[in-house]
Amino acid sequence: MKKKILFVSDSLRTGGIQKSLIDLLNKFNYEKYDVFLFLFNDNNINSVNKNVKIIKSNTIFRIIGMTSKEAKTKGIFIYFIRLVLSILCKVFSSQVIYSIIYLFINFEDKYDLAISYSNNVNNHSLYYGYNKLVLDKIKANSKISWVHIDYVNKQEKKWELKEFNKFNKIVLVSNNCKINFDKVYPSLKDKTVVVYNYLDKNSILKKSTEFIPNIDKENSILSIGRLEKNKNFEMQLRIAKKLTQSNLNFKWYIIGEGNNKDKLLELSKLYGIEDNVVFLGSKNNVYPYIKNSKILISTSLSESFGLTIAEAQILNTPVIALNYPSLNEIIDDNGIICNSELEIYNNILNLFNNEKEYSLLKEKTVYKIKDETIDKQLESILKGI
Predict the structure, then answer these.
(1) What's this model's pTM, rounded to 2 decimal places?
(2) How confident is the model over 378-385, as a mean pLDDT?
(3) Which end of the chain is more exposed for a tag (fewer CB within 10 A), N or C?
């Protein structure tokens, strides 16, 4: 008899967690497991593996699963409800508000394993409730929280420790993430395990040829990510300013949307780099841009894994990245790790001006984590259910 596994997540809008979930679901053995998926906001489910059984959401979940921008497109009533819920979470805590919401929610089926696949932002945010739903409302023999953030420089939170304590296992997506999580919550160390993110290499390669983007391929620098503080795009604009002052012929393309966009656009004008830096907004398919760029730059202050970097390696696009703890699990001689803004600037200049060194790095640019490694990691958490 097949084992029943339920995944709970926020949505399938563009993002690293969503990509990793889609790729994970494509790797499951559906002869052995019945897999179910519940999304708070169940729009855009066309990319989900056809073997997955979708559990239909309802209006309240769809609203709390929307971004503020998405809610605005649904009309003033939906936007108002989301706004009120968001304010209530800030005032009374997310735990309190979700406890009330969940009084009116019931899931009848029972599962062998239930997995909370999205992260709580904090206890005063509407981006919350995935762990709580799995713990309080889902009937399952075993429960897992799948953590996609790095706990470096984080501190213990009593409400979070209490929540994590109720799970049978906690999955981290890199060895360094496990190390940092265990430092914050040492009492949970025996529950934490590592499962790397799958990447569907064939799909990435295929999608990278769907179109040829209108970019300056020979002189292009590319960055991808949410326009937010952790992605550190301000550093990229400062580097772009220095490159412009050095009279380098380049175009720096930035793919992504976020709260910092207006600030970044203002900085671009202030630095006088509008002709060199192009904000492309969000793209449904970023792979042709990665494939056709000279180099990819990451300046993230922290990442749990580095999905975009791994995708660039699959597409043989050289990477220069600012150092963070888990980066050395995907980059050794197949990319360049920098410890400062100046190092990134110097390495960009070097790769643009030294064709021999660029060609040598491009030859070494490959993705080194094997699916077989992840298969073993995944099977280690599934064999006990």
Answers:
(1) 0.90
(2) 88
(3) N
